[in-house]
Amino acid sequence: MDSQVNFSAMIWHRTFRIIFSLRGLIAILFSFYFIGAIAWMLPTITEQGGVIAEIWKTFSSDLAFSWLLFDGALSKLVSIFIAPLFVFDAISGDKTGERMPIIMSRPITRTQYVLMKLSSGMLAFTLLFLPIMGIGYFVFSGLVEGGLDVANYFATCILFVALAFFCMAVCLLISALVKKNLVSFLAAFGLMSIAMTANASKNTSDALLASAQLTPHYYATYFASPFPEPHDLEIMPFLGCLVVIILFALPFLYLTILKFKKEDL
Amino acid sequence: MNLYLLYTDIKNILSSKRTSYTILIMAVFALVFGLVIRFSSEGLRTALEASAPGSAGVFEYMWFEDVLKFLLLVVVSFGAFIISDLEDDGTLGLILARPESRIAFLVRRILASLGAFFIVFMAGAVLVGIIAIGIMGDLDLPLFLLHQFFALPLCLFVIALAFFLSVPLRTTTYTVISSFAISLILSFTYAFSLMTGSGTPSPLNPLALGYRILVNAPLVEPMIYAFVFSAVLFAAGTVWFVKKDI
Lengths: 265, 246
What we know:
The complex is a heterodimer of chains A (265) and B (246).
Chain A (H helix, E strand, L loop, with lengths): L6 H13 L2 H24 L5 H8 L2 H27 L4 H5 L3 H5 L5 H32 L8 H28 L3 H15 L1 H4 L5 H7 L3 H5 L14 H28 L3
Helix pairs in contact in A: 1-7, 2-4, 2-7, 3-4, 4-7, 4-8, 4-9, 7-8, 7-13, 8-9, 8-13
Chain B lengths: L2 H12 L2 H22 L3 H10 L6 H24 L2 H6 L2 H5 L5 H34 L5 H10 L1 H18 L2 H24 L13 H6 L5 H24 L3
């Protein structure tokens, strides 16, 4: 790294700019809306028919709730909305605003620039996501019969941070490939919606379960889902899931750096 | 109103990446969700069919219940065309310097956006129907297209919302993310209310129109609400824009 660049200061500066912007506000409001909605429907949901009530009868309340929260709601919310929200225009925005030549005239390498965008997006996501999930834990544990398993809950939260890393790596590549924010928005949010479909439908057939296993979403919800079977939280499978999700993300990050390095600005 | 400029605007949208991405995203969603239903168990397909007595087939249930939420992202992009595109390009001030009132300018841009969206959405729906028939084989295409037409007031509301938000937010980025977020919240609100067994969603929520089509619920009242809300948003956005210092 270039000694003239205060890399960590740049990351923190951009992180706070994201958090205290409209997109940070939207992410916070959206997350609290989800927590409130799930807390509101939880007391009545088990009385209704359908898949959710069946799962509640078949498995423990803790696992059934984890499935509803992480597999049913958050895997969609994080992958199709909140994670792309922080980075979908990270590079294309600078190209559109013609700020790129000015930024590149500073003592910063192109690799540093990409890593700064990804790190600040990840940091902003983590700083918002984990405290909100912490509040969610206290709200939900009082509503679920027998309480929630704290280790399982927060282990899945950490896997979701890794899932956000994957989503951001993909969105950053899209942002590097296109020149317009709108195109980046359509491609990033559209692709993320498609990427999570197999995991969202994994309980419907063996073919979809096999497809879901080819996506990082499956590994992020590994301990929260009763499909194909419930998994107890253990350190090695947890680390395995974490590594697999990160390995899914790394090729996209590498391609982003490669593309951005070769770009004629 | 200058009809030639209106024609040019519609032509500009139809030849933009926004149009090709919309058709592409609709086709890919049709392909993916068609395969999801194709590989689902027979029991699930029967259950879906039973829960949507007014639908043109199982595929349409998925299309209205799941895909329409994701498609909101392409709908908001048409709302962003009205002002935000010009703000991003930095050409808004220049265009407003022409001898055309701001109201006439906005009416033209809104009509162009709605006209182009109608063409793109219905063309995309035909393609989606053909893909679904290719995969599933049991979709009633004319009924599916009629239902897409009935769902247009929903899209009209989302475009109006995006336009209204684009007046204070200016840039395309903030316009699309905020209008997409609000539309998603409205969609999830009716979906959550269904999960709690509250019955048919409120006619006041325009985003529940797709579900109402599926279950053969009355459509006139929610359509009137959707048109009224859209008209209010367009009118409020126009008044705000006319008085705004550019």
